[in-house]
Specification:
L-fuculose-1-phosphate Aldolase
Length: 204
């Protein structure tokens, strides 16, 4: 897939995300990989629901630098980390949904474990609702380089699949292409909403 086709698909996904209210107040950031060296990342401060192809910047994966001199997203280092860690990842979506943000604060452990939901099968490789699906949770940090190092360290010791939560911040997920990343996002968001409602009901 060429860069133009990739960014076309990503722009469509961004409009879908914006319509759902999952990237409010210009929050969130999205990217696609061009090749082993470059990715295209949303420009900082742009409303994700109205992005165009020209709102994506070419960024070097190894250095986080944008040759254009324009400012990529504040979380650029997390996107490039995912591309370095996972050669199969070709699209990354970072959103600020209410469900993901709240669950990341309610769950005090380092992982949110999902089990018993049929929608787990929306995640690549998952074939049964009986499986346990751990979603890593990392404490939020304004120092993105430090946060990236913590995530990288985690990934050397335990599987890091589909995505992760940043506590009080939101969800970052990825896929082999934009369509898979979008499916992972929608599936995880459904699972988060179910889990959040279940925990609320259990307290009644």
């Amino acid at each position: 897939m060429t860069a133009n086709l990739q960014t076309d698909a990503l722009v469509e996904a961004c409009h879908w995300i914006g319509a759902k209210g999952w990237a409010p107040a210009t929050g969130g950031n999205m990217s696609v990989r061009e090749d082993a060296q470059w990715c295209w990342l949303s420009e900082s401060g742009k409303d994700k629901g109205s992005l165009t192809n020209s709102d994506f910047l070419k960024v070097e994966i190894a250095t986080n630098q944008a040759p254009s001199g324009r400012k990529p997203s504040a979380e650029t280092g997390l996107h490039t980390l995912i591309y370095r860690l996972f050669p199969e990842a070709n699209a990354v979506l970072h959103v600020h949904t209410v469900n993901a943000t709240l669950l990341s604060r309610i769950e005090k452990s380092a992982e949110l474990v999902l089990s018993g939901y049929e929608m787990q099968k929306s995640l690549r490789g998952q074939t049964s609702h009986l499986d346990s699906v751990p979603i890593a949770i990392f404490d939020n940090d304004q120092d993105i380089d430090a946060l990236a190092r913590r995530i990288e360290h985690y990934a050397t010791e335990r599987p890091l699949n589909y995505g992760f939560l940043l506590r009080g911040h939101g969800l970052t997920c990825w896929g082999r292409d934009v369509a898979e990343a979008r499916r992972h996002l929608e599936g995880l968001e459904f699972l988060f909403e179910c889990e959040l409602r279940l925990r609320q009901l259990e307290k009644l």
